[in-house]
Amino acid sequence: MRRAFASLSNPLGVAARRCRVVADAHVFAACLQLYVSNRGHNSLTHFRVGNDGALDRKGTTPVGGIPRDFTIVDPFVIVGNQDGGKLVVFKMDETTGSLTAVGEPVACSWPATLLAVQP
Hints:
- Helices cover 7% and strands 50% of the residues.
- The model has no long low-confidence stretch (mean pLDDT 82).
- By secondary structure, the protein is mainly beta.
- The longest helix is centred in the N-terminal third of the chain and has 8 residues, at 2-9.
- It is built from one helix and eight strands, in the order αββββββββ.
- The protein has a four-stranded antiparallel beta sheet with strand order 1-2-3-4, with helices on one face. A four-stranded antiparallel beta sheet has the order 5-6-7-8, with no helix packed on it.
- Strand 7 and strand 8 (99-107) form a beta hairpin.
């Protein structure tokens, strides 16, 4: 399964050996988007999920380090980068699913698992 995701999530034109591991995948149901983290290429790739379940690759966003984990807190995607010990926040466009960096990365000693807690 990881190999299938790695093959699917490789950014267009990037050799497979540069995108070695898919670390995490999340579906954001509100806008039918699938986000997959790419270690080696250090990015998130997002797909539109069709009504039939088919995936349409929409784009790839650099995350500034090796993505260890990420979580979605509508309308934000928070990425924990393991190599630099940083959290990077992106705002998700709720129509297209594209990601835009928000603010500066925040230091975090080891962002191994991110969990959003709603009050």
